């Protein structure tokens, strides 16, 4: 088996964690006998500052010809906030039609969680975030800027098309897991969008009679998720609420250092992208203080997506094994550098 | 000193916790020598189902003539979700021009928090939520309902007028606390609304040179708030983000049973309303299993608002003292019924 991979290390700690993940990928290829042709793509602050380009058309075309994208992190204090996020991350999600943002929330044994008494058996859920629309569609409009009469309007656009594909994906996932799907929204206030999501849940649900469903408001979700994550198997939600509750999910897992995500194209019209959910953390870049687990668990999702299921499982297990021995999940206290940890995970993949 | 109070017990556990709070109010009046004339107003599911009325104009007029409103909770499985919330709670916030939703997030000593290692000295912040606009303005619009072409649009409207009054309130509060104000938003995605909030923060900040400010994205807030609440003194945010992060704040405090809120009119054009943040909890209504602390701490906020500062402090201290001795924060395990707990808090107010 052979695959093509575009690697976007990005800024700050992005290149460090990506390098660690690629070491792990080497080990997985070796052990499971597949090949991956890698192309490194220089997107991010440096590229933007030296060329003025965020996401050139040529790059989009090139990425579209790869089987998957491994993404590090972008963002730099040298670029105004929002520019790189919108111009690269959100632009890629759109250009590659990455309909789904997939966020497993899993507490691995031995990982310190800030939630007291939380155990791994009680924390194994997946959040399915609609990844293309909602409040993320547009820049909105402003009138009377700079005066006391200023008004800024933001729109959230929700289509049956995109909501259905997210909800169908979530049902399908639930049907091969514990068969429970929770819609998270704010239907009592966002009435029209809420009706759309509710109608789609019911309509798609007819195709999945064995999946039980329920509904939780996004505010209530922030109360339930930390204390009763076992209530949830698969949670489906819109783009903005997904952004918020997945970061809360990462807290349960032991923080940003551990959390992985996939931006999935599910209709063959683009390339899926996998990224740790942490940012570029410019304050600690270059010191070897970034936890490579998020990048390695994202690599595991990537391998699963490429059909390399055994390798995916091995990378996840190896990462979990190394996490279990770490004294802290980020920073100086990790007890080993980013690259050393990458090598440990790689060795664990090799020895199985 | 004499004041007028409208009491809206509402549905489910609302009347139980309100009764407990009124017992505490009796004790406070007795000890601190002020009088409060109380008018009970029957709003909620029963009233709606028997009369078809949500919030009649006469009621609005009557409420406007009171000095404050003490609210229990509304909501019932007999009424479709959203009807009572929008028709009563949100309608009251609008009619009474309750510009600010004030949510202290304070961990009282002895209260079990699900965040491991969190101590009361590290958890004392106030969230100031804009309470009248943003995503809460309108019902949105839908086209092609019931077809695969359906599109639902929701708007968020943000005015300099309302954002400034919330931000100014927050600065003023910060200036008499630890002098730190954090804006919580999602400026990298909600660009126009984000620019408005940022511009208002800067503009109003000129009047409060001694208040330090910073900015945290709402998703990052959900990561920081549980593990580093000591980072925050006053947090100001929009209506929707406020709805979400205040419920997360309640988790830190030991859950819904303990959390209080005020909906403040700050320009003399309406009446402020104080409510525990828990809902009507119909599943446990009538059993004495609801924690009256949220209602009593809301009463404390109310007394402060009426200028009864000593009474406010005494009610808060009494509630904290009783909380410290409770084996659990809600349900059967509280060790005493709602009304017994109310009496204990009242006695603690009396004895000081
Ligand atoms: C960087 C930002 C635009 C992005 C988002 O809001 O989706 C990030 O928070 C995420 O969750 O991937
Ligand atoms: C009941 C609901 C409309 C309300 C809101 O969303 O504001 C509630 O969640 C709150 O926070 O007071």
TrEMBL record, chains A, B:
<dbReference type="Pfam" id="PF00180">
    <property type="entry name" value="Iso_dh"/>
</dbReference>
<keyword id="KW-0464">Manganese</keyword>
<keyword id="KW-0479">Metal-binding</keyword>
<keyword id="KW-0560">Oxidoreductase</keyword>
<dbReference type="InterPro" id="IPR050501">
    <property type="entry name" value="ICDH/IPMDH"/>
</dbReference>
<dbReference type="InterPro" id="IPR019818">
    <property type="entry name" value="IsoCit/isopropylmalate_DH_CS"/>
</dbReference>
<dbReference type="GO" id="GO:0051287">
    <property type="term" value="F:NAD binding"/>
</dbReference>
<feature type="domain" description="Isopropylmalate dehydrogenase-like">
    <location>
        <begin position="4"/>
        <end position="345"/>
    </location>
</feature>
<protein>
    <submittedName>
        <fullName>3-isopropylmalate dehydrogenase</fullName>
        <ecNumber>1.1.1.85</ecNumber>
    </submittedName>
</protein>
<dbReference type="InterPro" id="IPR024084">
    <property type="entry name" value="IsoPropMal-DH-like_dom"/>
</dbReference>
<keyword id="KW-0520">NAD</keyword>
<dbReference type="GO" id="GO:0000287">
    <property type="term" value="F:magnesium ion binding"/>
</dbReference>
<dbReference type="GO" id="GO:0003862">
    <property type="term" value="F:3-isopropylmalate dehydrogenase activity"/>
</dbReference>
């Amino acid at each position: 088996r052979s695959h093509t991979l575009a690697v976007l290390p990005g800024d700050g700690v992005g290149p460090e964690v990506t390098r660690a993940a690629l070491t792990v990928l080497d080990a997985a290829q070796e052990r499971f006998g597949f090949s991956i042709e890698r192309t490194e793509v220089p997107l991010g602050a440096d590229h933007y500052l030296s060329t003025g380009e965020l996401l050139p058309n040529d790059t989009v075309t090139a990425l579209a010809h790869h089987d998957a994208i491994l993404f590090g992190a972008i963002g730099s204090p040298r670029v105004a906030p929002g520019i790189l996020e919108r111009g690269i991350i959100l632009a890629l999600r759109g250009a590659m039609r990455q309909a789904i943002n997939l966020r497993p929330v899993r507490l691995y044994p031995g990982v310190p969680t800030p939630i007291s008494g939380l155990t791994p058996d009680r924390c194994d859920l997946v959040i399915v975030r609609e990844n293309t629309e909602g409040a993320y569609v547009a820049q909105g409009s402003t009138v009377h800027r700079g005066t006391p009469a200023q008004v800024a309007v933001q729109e959230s656009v929700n289509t049956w098309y995109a909501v259905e594909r997210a909800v169908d994906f979530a049902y399908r996932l639930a049907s091969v897991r514990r068969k429970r799907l929770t819609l998270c929204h704010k239907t009592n206030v966002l009435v029209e969008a809420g009706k759309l999501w509710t109608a789609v849940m019911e309509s798609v649900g007819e195709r999945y009679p064995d999946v039980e469903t329920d509904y939780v408001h996004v505010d209530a979700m922030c109360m339930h998720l930390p204390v009763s994550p076992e209530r949830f198997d698969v949670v489906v939600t819109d783009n903005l609420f997904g952004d918020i509750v997945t970061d809360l999910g990462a807290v349960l897992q032991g923080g940003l250092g551990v959390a992985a995500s996939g931006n999935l194209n599910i209709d063959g019209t683009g390339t899926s992208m996998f990224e740790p959910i942490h940012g570029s953390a410019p304050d600690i870049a270059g010191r070897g203080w970034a936890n490579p687990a998020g990048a390695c668990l994202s690599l595991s999702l990537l391998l699963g997506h490429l059909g390399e299921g055994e390798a995916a499982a091995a990378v996840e297990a190896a990462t979990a094994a190394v996490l279990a021995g770490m004294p802290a999940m980020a920073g100086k206290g990790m007890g080993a550098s980013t690259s050393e940890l990458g090598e440990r995970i790689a060795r664990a993949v090799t020895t199985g």
